[in-house]
Amino acid sequence: MREMPGIAVSPAVVIGRAFLLDDIRRPVSSRSINSGEVQNEQARLDEAVEASLAELAELRTRAEEEFGRDAAQIFAFHQGMLMDKTLIDPMRQRIADDHVPAETAVQEQFRIVAEQFARMPDTAFRTKVDDVWDLDHRVLRHLIGEHQNRLADSDTDSVVIASELTPTQTASFRDQGVAGFATDSGGLTSHTAIFARALNIPAVVGCESLVDTARDGDPIIIDGDQGLVIVRPDEETLERYEERARVAAALAASLRETANEPAITTDGVEIELLGNIEYAAEVPTVLEYGGRGVGLFRTEYLWLTSDHEPTEEEQYKAFAESVGSADGLPVTIRTFDLGADKYTQQRAMNPERNPFLGERSIRYCLTNISMFKQHLRAVLRASAIGPLKIMFPLISTMMELRQAKLVLHDVMEDLAEEGIAFDPNVKIGMMVETPAAAIMSTSFAREVDFFSVGTNDLIQYTIAVDRTNERVANLYSGADPAVLRLMKDTIRSARRHEVPVSCCGEVAGDPEYTMLLLGLGFRTLSASPSRLPYVKRVVRSVDINACELLARRAGSLDSERQVTALLRDAARKHFPELFDGRSIESGV
Ligand code: PEP
Ligand code: MG
Predict the structure, then answer these.
(1) Cα three-residue angle 225-226-232, rounded to 5 degrees
(2) Do the Cβ atoms of 161 and 182 come closer than 8 Å?
(3) Which residues contact 68 (CB under 8 A, 6 or more apart)?
């Protein structure tokens, strides 16, 4: 048995079997194969090359038809390379001589070729380096895709183990019946983690050497409450966890029964609980878990789960579906928040040096105006169906907000001219998720209809800690006094200008934070659907005075540890039943 600590990112416990997943962007794990597997690995390589060639032939024909012979040349060049024995034979040889899997042989050989091209004095050759990587990704995608496809056929108790997972990969778990996952890297609010909560499956990230410890098929426990992965558990541990899983299931069932009761504190203050979603299809789940609408639709998932830029019609369909299923309740559509750890296929090929501080989110949209306009057309068209609000992400300067609003108004004019219906009074809001936005919230409040505080990014930018980096995860906390101060300032500005303000970061779904958030003045919280019943239980068992007292005490403390201890003690005192059966160490 091996116990591997990590970061708890999605609660509950799962007991299952390990499924080790390879990763396209990193050297494939250092596993070796035995001599009996050599032929099989060579055959996998051949199949991946053949599949890539077939794909290239199709792309070449299509390019020739649509763009002419010259444009198709690029695919001819790729085909030529892939048919070249001097490229493929060394890969086959490496598998046979060194007993490495096909993925390793492919990655290494393409790296050698790319380096050769990069060293050539002639620039014409140097520019081919990108083509080599493109080809490398194509072949690897077939190898890894074939591997990932096996997941769909695996048992329902499969627990995915990977060095790293992209939000896109995690999204595909939805259809593959994955029971939980654990990764070597990652942080508490990385989008992969957020996706785990959306899927409602236990997950632990930042375990460091899990990929080298677990083997395919190993019995494994993911403890998403305490942030622990147990590989090959002994009998006693297994029994203890089976009991924990039973207690947790009973609590979840009891919470589900009260999910549709009103979210009112004991002294009668009504709290609006909304859901955060990534897909339109999640809206019924929000309602089922007691949410009264959608506070955050992370629309960029339309890109992450597609191999092409989503068309206006595809976008419109998704937004219209969300508004339709919300059945008169409000849906807040956040415009594309691409970049950082949510990148498009094209961006993945050209990584930025510092993507979280780079061309992400509203900045990306404002430099790709035609894409942005098409997006806003789809959103606005859906506003004709029912109550819809538009929210801009990552606003850090007034200029950005004004530009975004200008583009939106341009699109409104276009639609009006074309006679296409939309809501001309649609509410326009912004995320407050940069310190700049929080500090300048009084000015911003004059320009928008609502604020939504995104603590996930606000924490990372305030404390200067990458939200996806396990090495600095100990610094990443919503209980940091600097973050509390910025939230307080934002709420004060919002109240002064009578602008509604909600919280849609992950703290909004953490019952340990609910009293604090209400005490600070939030009356609207938006969280992953499965977290809503927990938050509602807290709301229904506290009064606002106690919450305000707690927020005041938290505000008087100057260390994150003290604030965290205060919140934890209060949570256990006021609603101990939420923590029965788990000695939780989680928290945002
Ligand atoms: C946030 O930053 O708090 C937020 C809700 O947005 P995202 O997690 O998608 O960055
Ligand atoms: Mg954000």
Answers:
(1) 100
(2) yes
(3) none
Tokens of 363: 């900045």
Rounded distance, CA 245 to CA 230, Å?
15
> Which residues have their alpha-adjacent CB atom under 5 A from ion ligand 2?
433, 454, 457
Give the integer Cα–Cα distance in Å for 376 and 586: 38
- Amino acid present at 577: E
**CB-neighbour burial class of residue 539 (10 A; exposed 0-12, middle 13-18, buried 19+):** buried
pLDDT tens across 341-381, in order?
776 655 565 678 888 999 999 999 999 999 999 999 999 99
Q: Rounded to two decimals, what is the model's pTM?
A: 0.78
Q: 225 burial class (0-12, 13-18, 19+ CB within 10 angstroms)? A: buried
Q: Which residues line ligand 1 (CB under 6 A)?
A: 189, 194, 296, 298, 337, 433, 454-457, 504-505
Give the C-alpha distances (Å, rounded to integers) separating 321 from 188, 229, 454, 575.
30, 38, 25, 37
* Residue ranges for the chain with pLDDT beneath 70: 22-31, 146-150, 152-155, 307, 343-350, 580-588
Kindly calculate the radius of gyration of the chain based on its CA atoms and give it in whole angstroms: 25
